[in-house]
Amino acid sequence: MTSIIERIRKSNFWHFHGGIHPPEQKQLTTNNPIKHISLPKQLILPLQQHIGCQGDLLVNIGDKVLKGQALTQSSSPMAVPIHAPTSGIISAIKKSVIAHPSGLSELCLFLDVDGKDTWRQRKTCRDYTQLSHQDIIKIIADAGIAGMGGAGFPTHIKVNSKSEVDFLIINAAECEPYITADDLLMQEQSEAIVDGIRILDQVLKPTFILIGIENNKPQAITALQKITKNIDKINICVLPTKYPTGGEKQLIKILTGKEINSGSLPIQSGIIVQNVATCFAISDAVINDIPLIKRVVTLTGQALTNPQNLWALLGTPVSYLLAQTGFVDETIDNPTITTLPAANPPVIMGGPMMGYSISNELVPIIKTSNCILAPSKVEMPSAFDNNSNEMECIRCGQCSDVCPSQLLPQELQWSAKAKDHQQLTKLNLFDCIDCGACAYVCPSKIPLVQYYRIAKAEISQQQQLDIKADKAKARFEARKLRLEKEKTVREEKNKKAAAARKAAMSKKNAAGETANSAVAAALARVKAKKEQNKENESQIPSGDEKSQVKAAIARAKAKRLAKSNTNNKEINELQVTGNEKSNKKVDESHVSNFEQNNNAKDKPPVIYNEKAQKENPLINNAAIDRKVRIAAAVAKAKAKVKAKKQQEKLAVINNEEQNQPNDSRPDNPKPNSETK
Amino acid sequence: MNILIAILVLGIIAALFGALLGYASVHFHVEGDPIVEQLDALLPQTQCGQCGYPGCKPYADAVANGEAINKCAPGGEDTIKKIADLLGVDVQPIDENHEKDKSATNNLPKVAFIIEEDCIGCTKCIQACPVDAILGAAKQMHTVLIDECTGCDLCVAPCPVDCIEMRPIPETIQNWQWNLNKIAVKQVG
Question: Using the beta-carbon criterion (under 8 Å), do B56 and A473 form an inter-chain contact?
Answer without folding.
Answer: yes
